[in-house]
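hiii, so i know i said id send this last week but things got crazy w the move. better late than never?? heres the sequnce for the chain we talked about at the cafe, plus the structure i predicted for it. fair warning i was half asleep when i ran it
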Amino acid sequence: MKKLILLILILLLAVFTAYKLLSKKESKPEEKANEPLMISKNSDAFNMSFAEFMSHYYALKDAFVDWDTSQVNAQAKSLQRAIDSLPLKELKADSSVVLTADSYVSSIHNELTGLLGENSIEGKRHSFNMLTSEIYDLVRVVKYDHERLYHIKCPMAFSDSLEGYWLSNTNQIVNPYLGRKHPKYKDKMLGCGEITDSLDFSKK
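okay and structure toks below
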């Protein structure tokens, strides 16, 4: 009789232990589901405007990939309109950050004017390289946090020896300096490049 009671007690203890272990496992997904959603540091108006600005930049990059100067000019004009419309007053930052951002906005506008004034695609690519540098700095100043951006280098963008940079919202290498119709390489160097930095200002 004592052995039977002891066996029942052991079985009850085993069932209780198993129940506690299963309860802990089931509670984990609930804890994950209760994690806070991402809250942007900037307003919706600013983020929407900046996203549109970046979409025109990507379109400009793609036009260089295709060696399409008419599209390069069209997208440069769209990009210039987008940067001029950027609502810096919507930035949730102190005045020094806003002033710095405003300085980059002016530089980007002027660089685009220079790009549009270049007659050759080579000259336009030099302007695109300078433009990319200004936008890269602007992104870091305003801490745009609605997508991850990749800073990518082509080591042979100009005369096979000078580097050039571009930004992308994917880690896929599609080179806007050598492109699909390079007179020497055709499209064989389209994947030439390396990621030098990734910017991700999102915060849970």
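btw The mean pLDDT is 87. thought thatd interest u
miss u guys!!
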